[in-house]
Amino acid sequence: MVAIHAFFLWNLRPAVARGDPDFTVYYTAGRMLREGRGSRLYDPHAQLAVQREFAADAETRHNPLPYIHPPFEALIFLPLTFLSYAAAYFFWNGLNLGILLGVVRLLRSSVECLRHISGLDLYLALLAFSPVIANFHQGQDAILLLLVVLLAFRAWEQGADFAAGLWIGAGLFKYHLILPLAVVLVLWRGRKFLLGMLTTGSVAILISLAIVGWHEALAYPGFTWRVLSEPGLGRIPFRQLPNLLGLIAGWSSEEYTGWLLPAVALVGSILLLAVAVRMQRFAVNRPLERMAFAFALTSALFVGYSTNTYDLALLVLPIALAIDHSLRDSTEPSAQRIALILPILPLFLSSLWFYLWLRWEHINVIAIFILWWLYAMHKEILRMRARAGAPATVSALA
Fold first, then answer.
1. I want to staple 150 with a disulfide (CB 3.0 to 4.6 A). Which of 106, 181, 299, 378 is the partner?
2. Separation CA 218–CA 335 (nearest Å)
3. pTM (predicted TM-score)
């Protein structure tokens, strides 16, 4: 699978030269900051003008590939703008390869079963996971977020709630994924965690205000919502979303423009997060706490409004926790171990991802497996709680 991915990326060289990957938006934002145009960071005309300077032949350049991330994240990419676009793209992917080394080290120190395989094998396993490789394809930032979430998990597991909150706040550059997880963790851990998150969140807000000013900051939510909600402007087709919204509204060949199906997805998201919040009641020991965290993180990805393929790189942590639980619980029947792991096995097949993306154009099928896995985790948590000595209350997913 690593060889297939390497071959695929090698053949993307012409697309990179044209400026087609999503990395274009980060490079655009960094250049605008370096050139003193931060106050126009969310001006589509200014974005298009910058992109035409280095990506005039891109297939998407009739309209800008819009930068919709918070202003403070653009600072990460500002130094890369001293390189040409192609050089910056490959340099950023080189940094992602380095970040994966940190991910490997944190995973092996946090998840016992991973210590029984070499660091090189685990590194190759990550590169064989299609959502991880999608970050290299698009020059995306979800691998960086995976590192941040791993650091938050380490602090959370050690009882350092304030430090865990600091790390979660640092992940607000992808707030559509972090905020659902943050809501659950705040309700689990309370004031210290919230204070930590508000600390780094406040710093990020102040930096953003310094970059774009009050006027642009107030216009930012409307600009982002317009891009994400209008087909043809920047909204990803629902059939390409491996989340709850894609599962509900992504089956038609035509783009859905109504409000009913997104409203249904919103109600479903609230209910699922409510179930995740109740997981804390069951977390009476370390294995249950870990499974509850895996459920919460997977739920946050599933309900994120525009969760994309590359965002599912964050599933690396809950997958590792679930596998570790299955291997360590020797009293569990093999059928129950298989039931917990079976839903995620298709996610390891690169051929499935390529077929759903390039041939059928329905990545939303992946949402079926994620929902199935959430059900399996929930069922396992209830079973673990019952075995721990206290009957579990039937919840919304039981």
1. 106
2. 53
3. 0.93
163-172 pLDDT, tens digit each? 999 999 999 9
The angle formed by the CA atoms of residues 64, 135 and 204, to the nearest 5 degrees, is 70
Tokens of 119: 């660091």
Query: 284-314, pLDDT tens digit by residue?
Result: 788 899 999 999 999 999 999 889 999 999 9
Lowest model confidence (mean pLDDT) among 215-219, 226-230, 317-321, 380-384:
226-230
Cα 31 to Cα 12: distance, rounded to the nearest angstrom: 24
What's at 36, amino acid-wise? G
Tokens of 344: 């995620």
How far is 85 from 55, CA to CA, in rounded Å? 8
What are the tokens at 31?
Answer: 């250049």
What is the C-alpha end-to-end distance of the chain, expressed in Å? 36
pLDDT digits (tens, 9 = 90+) for 182-191: 999 999 988 9
| CA R_g for the chain | 21
Using CA atoms, how far residue 283 sits from 19, 265, 333, in Å, is 47, 28, 21
Give the span between the Cα atoms of 303 and 272, in whole angstroms.
8
- What gap in Å lies between CA 227 and CA 357, rounded to an integer? 22
Query: CA 350, CA 261: separation in Å to the nearest integer?
Result: 30
DSSP 385: H
User: Tokens in use for 153?
Assistant: 């998990």
What is the Cα–Cα distance from 322 to 18, expressed in whole angstroms?
Answer: 41
